[in-house]
Design goal:
heterotrimer, A alpha+beta, B alpha+beta, C alpha+beta, A: alpha+beta, Uridine Diphospho-n-acetylenolpyruvylglucosamine Reductase, domain 2, Uridine Diphospho-n-acetylenolpyruvylglucosamine Reductase, domain 3, Enolase-like, domain 1, 5-stranded antiparallel sheet, 4-stranded antiparallel sheet, 12 helices, C: alpha+beta, Aldehyde Oxidoreductase, domain 3, Aldehyde Oxidoreductase, domain 4, 7-stranded mixed sheet, 5-stranded mixed sheet, 19 helices, 28 strands, globular
Chain lengths: 288, 153, 773
């Protein structure tokens, strides 16, 4: 219940935050909403000596349009994403995924930057970000860089972030009106995290043939991944229920599927197929 | 670290360790013990308060994160010695037994009704996802929130 | 007696403070110079302690002292009240020495001037363990080649207990069919929302030790802590302030309670320990934990001639207050609401390297009800009968009461058909059966589950109890006419501050607001037993009734004296003593009370004052009953269960406050749902509790729970004058089999006859992967 003692910093700019992180290296942790970090600290599974609270960096809390993408600051809360008109109308998938996170209180505090940097394999955003082909904007001691979501999630709780680097924003594409999306999740009963979740982005031509498809899966393996086999077999095909069902097989074929008390690998795999199918089906129906 | 924050319209100033959890500040520094602690995994919601109007779990915030902010705890709902309609509804509908989860439930309900003044049964249950009760089976809590919604309408 | 309050849905007098956050739970009590205690607990299920190094911890700022098992040698063993024949009772120290026997067993207690510093110091203690093989599975524990949990015993068997009624062997010879089934009652975590907690304050001048403890049994705790610490019992005071739920987990005397008292005496400072949730999972008792084989002897018309239950009870590493007694309650109720003349139960209680099991809501009876109600469905399946018809063939009929069971009990009163009929009508049972057939054809799987339970309540007659089963009440009419009740029960959510006030207000003809019910403080209340076993209103409420009867009797004498007539000419009604033949001549209770205290004009040899104490000893248990009907649909794709309908018709005798009764049923049903569908304390092969937090152990949330349709019948109990039976555990006892029966019924097309709890989606999904028959 009680975290270990630490020194606390509240920088007011990204640069200041990064220089603090550089100074304290591996002993420092950024704090955004704190809803991944503080629970670990309370159980003493994490014990950073220095906490760099980002709350005072105003620019990290903004949602803005940049070209054909939405830039979502790292400190934007799940709640803000779930309820933002901009996100709901231009990137509904992300709002739907945000609504599935934890509970109302957690969504009030937890932030997209904190969640994504934590890279819990059962979190909701990774599947959505993969399906959206989102970009993660990073600032560091040697300048800024952007990393595609597919390159960002490296392994269990491991990302492309280097020591001292700060995730500052997520860029998600503004989706064309004819694109359909859906997020479907099977909850682990106790924690509310995903046993399996699937995010689908689908576009089709006038004849109903699939012109674009991206499916992200969370909860199943050590990291979220794209169901590329499923995507390949549906691209160019008519999005009938039968075709979708036939394609949504072996979603987890090349993945090291989690096997724990909450679900066996066998069940997770079957549910990955099912939830991928459901997400694609709903997205296909929403696509115009 | 010196911090100042407002709880139930009263200003509290204190020199705290950065690691002090907000719930401990509320309970120990401000001596407002209506906010309870029921777990350490941000699950049970017994510690729910309003932070700048939004329901949050005060066990998963540092007191220093709340500096300069306005907090409302269950003790702050009563006005002029009268129970808030949500408190009244919990009483009338027998929405509590042991009473330990109740302050958190009431604060979560407060937030829920602020966002959705006329929630359905399902919306209420979804809105209580972050609060555990082991006594009531939730039915009378749901009834209480429906009744409070009617009172507040 | 007037019926102004009795039977009415009166809102609780307890609530205004609780909804305002102004109630005081243990952690809310502030004392000057209060120090905090944190524990170092075993990380191994079974290990030898080679050494404990506390030097780093002791040197940290704010640390007052660090206590190890060696420092606490003077404290007595943590008590077990059960006295089964041949029971092996291991020494149970407050802090482990030499050996630890479960994950979570306390080894070191650290005292510091703040919670944060105490936690830091506890983290700085290092324990040198030599891990030993852990005994985790009860069947493995019972095997001859097993490691011993306690080296001083020659095996892990703590006791063997049998119950035999009738001629079971003959019943099995006479049967048309013998049905066998293994059934597992998984270990459950009670998880009261308020974890345990203790504050101890020793006052050296007064030589008085006060414990504020989150307990269901303040008086029993006082006695036991006094014994453990070698103190005079009258110098120990236990206060149970607001208690945030118990469900049996606080019906106990834990090591922390005596240890905190000891520390406070050693340091001459008040000290506090509040359990973390992790500690609550690992070091507070768990419930259930039975693995048993059930056999029933059945005739082809569904009549059950006999039942056998052979069970291993997973006791854990040590015996807590009632650990070994819990499975024996299962035996008593094994024949359920049915006329089953032959019964045999054989329990083997085994030690395992896990925290002790003990009473958890229902305590042994949910197991019994589950067994017999599942068995009824198995019999129905065997002969392709409707499960309701099988029950009807076997139910004890209302003419047979009091009914003597083969297990040696006497069911007080009952009309089992009445709630069954009502529940079937409300649920529209035949319609669901037709619906089920139609849906199956469409590949949708609907199931209907019924449970016609009976339970044993109002614990209980003292000869059948380990430490007294009576209850006490003092009722005082204060000089101003206000009523103070001191009850020996210790409510923690059940609402007796209200229901006892209802009883008193009606009996005395006063307003409800004039009655104050005090409880849970051994310094204020006469000795009592406490709250558990659905006993508070039936036993404790009857004690209140008895005390008021005594007061009225005394009041009559004084009233007659003051009115100048003989005792026989006076009557009492609506708060007034009056002349039978001239009701205008009267004296109010209030005036009478004042007269009794000013004592200027009393009859000869009349004791001044108007107060009475009454100890009520029940002559029997009570036996509430009812029918629950549950309808579910299971999704073949995911294995998830959706409850389409839940109907509970319960009969708990005379009802004092229907609001409270419904609340108990709601909560009980949902705890049953937790066991049936979600909850399980899972240990790995080395004895680590994998489901050790709410993030891994799911208890029902609002969204997991159906809307429950409640109704009732009221069959008064002849055991007590108010006719009350009790209701605290009915929901948990009655609901579990209804829920499981519904799901198993839904799975019938897949050839499923039984599934062990919890019915988590994956388990159901696997069963539905094969083709339907």
């Amino acid at each position: 219940m009680i975290p270990e003692a630490f020194e606390y910093f509240a920088p007011s700019s990204i640069q200041e935050a990064i220089s603090l992180a550089r100074r304290y290296g591996g002993d420092a942790k950024f704090l955004s909403g704190g809803h991944s970090l503080l629970p670990m600290m309370k159980l003493r599974l994490a014990a950073p000596k220095y906490i760099i609270d980002l709350a005072g960096i105003g620019e990290l809390t903004q949602i803005s349009e940049e070209g054909d993408s939405l830039k979502i600051g790292a400190l934007v809360t799940h709640k803000a994403i779930e309820t933002s008109d901009e996100i709901q109308s231009r990137c509904r998938l992300l709002a739907e995924a945000a609504f599935e996170i934890g509970d109302p209180q957690v969504r009030s505090c937890g932030t997209i930057g904190g969640s994504v940097a934590h890279a819990d394999p059962a979190a909701d955003y990774p599947a959505a970000l993969l399906a959206l082909d989102a970009e993660v904007r990073i600032e560091g001691p040697s300048g800024g860089r952007s990393v595609r979501a597919s390159d960002f999630f490296v392994d269990l709780f491991t990302t492309a972030l280097q020591q001292g680097e700060l995730l500052v924003a997520i860029h998600v594409p503004v989706l064309a009106h004819n694109v359909g999306t859906a997020y479907k999740k099977l909850r682990q009963q106790a924690s509310g995290f995903a046993l399996v979740s699937a995010a689908a982005v689908v576009a089709k031509d006038e004849g109903g043939k699939c012109t674009h498809i991206a499916v992200g899966i969370s909860g199943v393996g050590p990291k979220a991944f794209r169901a590329s086999k499923v995507e390949e077999s549906l691209l160019g095909k008519t999005l009938t229920e039968k075709n979708i069902t036939n394609a949504s097989h072996h979603v987890t074929a090349s993945v090291d599927v989690q096997n724990d008390i909450h679900a066996s690998a066998e069940y997770r795999s079957a549910m990955a197929d099912l939830f991928a199918k459901n997400a694609i089906w709903v997205a296909a129906n929403r696509a115009e | 670290m010196e911090i100042t924050l407002t709880i139930n319209d009263r200003t509290f100033k204190a020199d705290v360790e950065p690691r002090l959890l907000l719930v401990h500040f509320i309970r120990e520094n401000a001596c407002l013990t209506g906010t309870h602690i029921g777990c350490e995994t941000t699950t049970c919601g017994a510690c729910t308060i309003l932070l700048d109007g939004k329901a949050v779990k005060s066990c998963t915030l540092l007191a220093v994160q709340a500096r300069g902010k306005r907090l409302t705890t269950v003790e702050g709902l009563m006005k002029n010695g009268r129970l808030h309609p949500i408190q009244e509804a919990f009483w009338e509908e027998h929405g509590l037994q042991c009473g330990y989860c109740t302050p958190g439930m009431i604060m979560a309900a407060y937030h829920l009704l602020q966002e959705n003044p006329n929630p359905s049964d399902e919306q209420i249950r979804r809105g209580l996802e972050g609060n555990l009760c082991r006594c009531t089976g939730y039915q009378n809590i749901v009834k209480a929130i429906q009744s409070a919604a009617a009172k507040l309408a | 007696m007037a019926q102004k309050y009795l039977g009415q849905a009166i809102k609780r007098t307890e609530d205004p403070k609780l909804v305002s956050g102004l109630g005081h739970f243990v952690d809310d009590i502030k004392l000057p110079d209060l120090h905090n205690v944190c524990f170092v607990r075993s990380i191994h299920a079974h290990a030898r302690i080679r050494g404990v190094d506390t030097s780093l911890a002791a040197a940290l700022p704010g640390v007052v002292k660090v206590f190890t098992g060696e420092d606490c040698r003077g404290i007595g063993s943590i008590p077990c009240a059960s006295s089964l024949q041949g029971l092996k009772v291991p020494h149970h120290p407050v802090l482990a020495r030499n050996k630890v026997r479960y994950v979570g067993e306390p080894i070191v207690a650290v005292v510091a001037d703040s919670l944060y510093r105490a936690r830091d110091a506890a983290e700085a203690v290092s324990v040198d363990y030599e891990p030993l093989p852990a005994v985790v599975d009860p069947e493995q524990a019972a095997a001859p080649n097993s490691t011993f949990v306690h080296e001083e015993f020659s095996d892990n068997v703590a006791y063997v207990w049998s119950l035999v009624g009738g001629d079971v062997d003959q019943a099995f010879k006479d049967a048309d069919r013998v049905i066998k089934q293994r059934m597992i009652h998984q270990r459950l975590v009670p998880a009261a929302m308020e974890p345990r907690g203790v504050i101890a304050r020793f006052l050296p001048g007064e030589k008085e030790l006060t414990l504020w403890s989150s307990t269901q049994i303040p008086h029993l705790m006082r006695t036991q802590v006094a014994i453990m610490l070698g103190l005079f019992e009258n110098r120990v005071r236990v206060i149970a302030p607001e208690v945030g739920g118990g469900f049996g987990s606080k019906l106990n005397v834990y090591g922390e309670e005596a240890l905190l008292g000891f520390i406070s005496m050693q340091l001459q400072k008040p000290v506090k320990w509040i359990e973390t949730r992790r500690e609550n999972f690992t070091a507070t008792i768990q419930g259930r934990g039975q693995v048993g084989d059930v056999e029933i002897a059945v005739k082809s018309d569904g009549r059950v001639l006999g039942i056998r239950y052979t069970v291993l009870a997973d006791l854990g590493a040590y015996l807590q207050l009632l650990t070994p007694a819990i499975p024996t309650l299962t035996g008593l109720m094994l024949t359920g609401a049915y006329r089953i003349p032959n019964v045999r139960m054989d329990v083997t209680g085994v030690f395992t390297n896990k925290v002790a099991t003990d009473a958890y809501r229902g305590a042994g009876r949910p197991e019994a009800t589950y067994i017999i109600e599942r068995a009824m469905d198995l019999a129905a399946l065997e002969f392709d009968l409707d499960p309701v018809d099988v029950r009807r063939v076997n139910l004890v009929s209302k003419r047979e009461f009091p009914y003597a069971t083969a297990t040696g009990l006497s069911y007080d009163s009952g009309n089992y058909e009445a709630p069954l009929k009502k529940a079937l009508k409300i649920s529209q049972y035949p319609r669901w059966r037709r619906h089920q057939v139609k849906e199956r054809k469409k590949g949708r799987y609907v199931g209907v589950g019924v449970s016609t339970y009976v339970e044993i309540c109002a614990l209980g007659p003292s000869p059948a109890m380990p430490a007294g089963g009576w209850e006490s009440a003092t009722v005082r009419i204060e000089p101003t006419g206000k009523i103070t009740i001191l009850t020996g029960v210790s409510p923690h959510g059940q609402g007796q501050e209200t229901s006892f006030a209802q009883i008193a207000a009606d009996m005395l003809g006063v307003a409800l607001e004039d009655v104050l019910v005090l409880h849970g403080d051994t310094g204020v209340v006469q000795y009592g037993i406490g709250t558990f076993g659905s006993r508070a209103t039936a036993v404790g409420g009857t004690a209140v009734y008895g005390a008021i009867q005594k007061i009225l009797k005394k009041g009559m004498l004084l009233a007659a004296h003051l009115l100048g007539v003989s005792r026989r000419e006076v009557q009492f009604r609506d708060g007034k003593f009056f002349l039978k033949n001239d009701p205008t001549k009267s004296i109010s209770l209030q005036d009478l009370a004042l007269a009794s205290y000013t004592a200027r004009k009393l009859p000869p040899d009349f004791e001044p004052g108007l107060a009475a104490i009454y100890f009520y000893e029940p002559t029997n248990f009570t036996f509430p009953f009812g029918t629950h009907v549950c309808v579910v649909e299971v999704a073949r794709e995911t294995g998830t269960i959706k409850i389409l309908q839940y109907v509970a018709v319960d009969d708990c005798g005379t009802i004092v406050n229907p609001l409270l009764v419904e609340g108990q049923i709601h909560g009980g049903v949902v705890q049953a749902l937790g066991q049936a569908f979600m909850e399980e304390a899972v240990y790995d092969e080395i004895g680590q509790l994998i489901t050790g937090e709410f993030t891994d152990y799911a208890i029902p949330r609002a969204g997991d729970v159906p809307w429950m349709q409640l109704d009732r019948t009221e069959t008064p109990s002849p055991v007590n004058p108010l006719g009350i039976k009790g209701v605290g555990e009915a929901g948990t006892i009655g609901a579990t089999p209804a829920l499981v029966n519904a799901v198993v019924d839904a799975l019938r097309p897949f050839g499923v006859r039984h599934v062990d709890m919890p019915l988590r989606p994956e388990k159901i999904w696997k069963l539905m992967q094969k083709e339907t028959s």
